[in-house]
């Protein structure tokens, strides 16, 4: 029996109106996405820019309006919550953004930045808040003296540690990490990722991890979903995802991530997608990857594939998933 879900996203749609003449248009940013995240686990979403992964994360955080679907936190649908009810839910949901500098107010000291969510959501006394700030700074590897510094006085990695401390301030159950290490150099990335893993082990945190970096996702995530043009097209546990992926788009992402050399050179001829994705304003009727897929057939252009189970926890949306042998990436 699978572990109970902390977060369940069911049939999520996020559509935006776009100004377009001669008539308004609708951007299909997210189109029917579903997944679940058990407590203490990490669920990763990968895909190109514009695939809808960040919009999905923002919808989970109630930062963008949803068009349809359900987002359940501990069984409670938070889609329609407002006012005091939403205020209470925000204690359990926090977010770490991509750029650790632009997400911090440069005019406020580090201690004040961490204390703000405690004051807004926890209503602790001044002494309790100060003690909590010191505890959080220590938890992310910063000295108590850091509380008096401004963001510009920290390095990039230290700023992201500060952002993590702020995210931990209300003892959340789920933290959304939206490209949380992509703005850092590789050595600092490793430090921050290992910090996130340690905090998860110590505090039982669940992460929704948004990234375009497959190496980072492999290191961090228990389960991975691939998004393309607003839809999940493959989803699997970490081991199955990296040992035997089944969607041609996933093959393209993995081929692009290979280091330069003979293997990448040989695989890109057959598996690397070319061209640009279709417009999310007017997505195609068939498979949304059909216009770029090296293995497209007529059915792909005419009929949208359903997400079907092909193994334990492994799902794929491809008409030809059982006809084509996947490449070997080693």
Roughly what is the average pLDDT, rounded to an integer?
91
Individual helix count: 11
The helicity comes to: 25-40%
**Tell me, what is the CATH class?**
Alpha Beta
Lateral arrangement of strands in the main beta sheet: 6-7-8-3-9-10-12-11
The parts where pLDDT drops under 50 for at least 5 residues are: none
CATH homology superfamily name: P-loop containing nucleotide triphosphate hydrolases
Q: What oligomeric state do these chains adopt?
A: single chain
Order of H and E elements:
EEEHEEHEHHHEHEHEEHHHHEE
> Radius of gyration, rounded?
21 Å
Which structural class is indicated by helix and strand composition?
Answer: alpha/beta
CATH architecture: 3-Layer(aba) Sandwich
- Any idea what the shape is? globular
Structure in a nutshell:
The chain has 330 residues and is of the alpha/beta class. It contains eleven helices and twelve strands.
Descriptive account of the structure:
There is one protein chain. The chain is an alpha/beta fold and 330 residues long. 34% of the residues lie in helices and 23% in strands. It contains eleven helices and twelve strands. It has an eight-stranded mixed beta sheet, sandwiched between helices. A four-stranded antiparallel beta sheet has the order 2-1-4-5, covered by helices on one side. It is globular, with a radius of gyration of 21 Å. The model has no long low-confidence stretch (mean pLDDT 91).
Secondary-structure map with pairings?
Elements: E1 5-18, E2 25-38, E3 42-46, H1 53-60, E4 68-73, E5 76-77, H2 83-89, E6 93-96, H3 110-122, H4 126-139, H5 156-168, E7 174-178, H6 186-203, E8 206-210, H7 214-220, E9 223-228, E10 231-237, H8 238-243, H9 248-257, H10 262-271, H11 298-302, E11 308-311, E12 314-316
Parallel strand pairs: 3-8, 3-9, 6-7, 7-8
Antiparallel strand pairs: 1-2, 1-4, 4-5, 9-10, 10-12, 11-12
């Amino acid at each position: 029996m699978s572990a109970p879900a902390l977060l369940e996203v069911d049939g999520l749609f996020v559509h935006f109106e776009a100004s377009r003449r001669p008539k308004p248009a609708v951007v299909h940013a997210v189109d029917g996405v579903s997944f679940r995240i058990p407590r203490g686990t990490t669920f990763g979403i990968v895909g190109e820019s514009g695939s809808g992964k960040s919009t999905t994360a923002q919808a989970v955080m109630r930062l963008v309006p949803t068009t349809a679907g359900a987002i359940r936190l501990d069984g409670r649908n938070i889609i329609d919550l407002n006012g005091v009810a939403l205020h209470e839910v925000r204690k359990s949901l926090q977010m770490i953004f991509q750029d650790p500098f632009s997400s911090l107010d440069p005019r406020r000291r580090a201690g004040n930045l961490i204390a703000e969510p405690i004051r807004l959501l926890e209503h602790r006394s001044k002494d309790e808040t100060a003690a909590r700030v010191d505890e959080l700074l220590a938890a992310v590897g910063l000295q108590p003296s850091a509380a008096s510094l401004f963001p510009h006085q920290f390095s990039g990695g230290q700023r992201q540690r500060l952002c993590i401390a702020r995210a931990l301030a209300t003892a959340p159950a789920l933290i959304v990490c939206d490209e949380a290490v992509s703005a850092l150099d590789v050595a600092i990335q490793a430090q921050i990722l290992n910090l996130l893993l340690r905090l998860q082990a110590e505090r039982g945190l669940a992460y929704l991890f948004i990234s375009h970096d497959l190496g980072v996702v492999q290191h961090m995530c228990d389960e991975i979903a691939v998004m393309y043009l607003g839809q999940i097209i493959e989803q699997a546990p970490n081991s199955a995802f990296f040992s035997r992926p089944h969607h041609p788009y996933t093959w393209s992402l993995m081929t692009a991530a290979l280091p330069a050399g003979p293997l990448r050179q040989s695989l890109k001829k057959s598996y690397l997608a070319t061209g640009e994705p279709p417009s999310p304003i007017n997505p195609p009727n068939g498979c949304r990857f059909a216009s770029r897929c090296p293995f497209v057939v007529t059915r792909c252009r005419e009929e949208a594939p359903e997400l079907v189970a092909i193994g334990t926890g492994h799902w794929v949306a491809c008409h030809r998933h059982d006809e084509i042998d996947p490449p070997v990436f080693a």
